Amino acid sequence: MINNAEYLIQKYAEAREKMDLSNEKGREYWKGVRDTYHSLLILAFNDWAEKGSTGHYVFYEQMTYDEALNAINSNS
């Protein structure tokens, strides 16, 4: 069982970035990868996208993982 939500959030964000930069064929591949990480997060972690969390900034605000970390640090 996967037990690290932060790792999955980071991988989700990376896959979304690669999806946005890819050609059509690559976009479909990375969309599948992104959706897989999203499914794992939903299944394994109930509060992974809780407001103010890294997951919230990455998923809802569409930030990169580093931008999400910076947002959290600036709100602290």
What are the segments in which pLDDT stays under 50 over at least 5 consecutive residues? none
Give the DSSP E fraction (strand runs of 2 or more residues): under 5%
Report the average pLDDT across residues: 93
Q: Main β-sheet, in a few words? A: none
Tell me how many strands there are.
0
The amount of helix comes to over 70%
Please give the domain count. Answer: 1
Describe the global form.
Answer: globular
Q: How many H/I helical runs?
A: 4
- Along the chain, the helix and strand elements come as HHHH
Gyration radius (Cα, Å) is: 12 Å
| Class of secondary structure makeup | mainly alpha
Can you give a write-up of this model?
With 76 residues, the chain is an all-alpha fold. The chain has one domain (5-75). The protein is 72% helix and 0% strand. It has four helices and no strands. The chain has helices at 5-21, 24-44, 54-59, 65-75. The longest helix has 21 residues, at 24-44. The protein starts with a helix and ends with a helix.
List the helices and strands and how they pair.
Layout: H1 5-21, H2 24-44, H3 54-59, H4 65-75
Keywords:
single chain, 76 residues, mainly alpha, 4 helices
Quick structural overview:
It contains 4 helices and no strands.
